[in-house]
Design a protein that fits this description.
8 helices, 5-stranded parallel beta sheet, alpha/beta, two-stranded antiparallel sheet, 244 residues, single chain, 7 strands
Length: 244
Amino acid sequence: MKIIAFNGSPRAEQSTTNLMVSAFLAGADSAGAETEQIFLAHKKIGHCLGCFTCWLKTPGTCIQSDDMDGLIAKYFSADVVVFATPLYMDNVSGIMKNFMDRLLPTGDPHFEKDDNGEVRHVKGKKPDPKFVMISNSGFPEQSHFQVLKLLTQRLARNYQTEFIGEIYRGAGALLQTQEMKSITDQYLKLLHKSGSEVVNGGRISTQTSRELDQPLIPDPNYVDIFITNANAFMDNMINEYKKS
């Protein structure tokens, strides 16, 4: 099995997204998968021009000459693709959105009805890989990922492939806090386990998903504790910038 993660964080290797993806891929690798993480921040990806050239004039090929040709080849080489992104405005990052939009040439411009009678595009000539979504947010609650949950389900539906796992981490910045290391190490072990489950069982198990969804700090006042500490951190950072 080949698993490729497309990391849409502008912070690339320094990101919390990378920390999460690396643990997930390590688990998949330990189970025998071939894995790779691609940092989209290091790639040249223009936004979709909406010109339909890739459908009408040069089917399957975008009019723009940038890194997407190679990225699409990587996309189709995978059995499982991980869309990895920080949460920006309740959605994927701008870099990730450009990448997703530029997958348009992989499809077919004709229309059909799905099993529920809803219209979608006809499946492309090449089978799409299965999907996993990994994301982290600066907000503490898991409810902030509602848009991503629906988006990934719709992506899998539109591309006629299988959605086999989703990992969302509220208060993701805590994963890079040394004071939280004993707690975050346990979370990273769960990420490792989820990667191995995808390889061995074809998807992230319900139990592991449930455990991954729990607050990092097992305290009923978790959100209030987060707000107090996060605001103190922000005030400190603001003062530091004023001094510079």
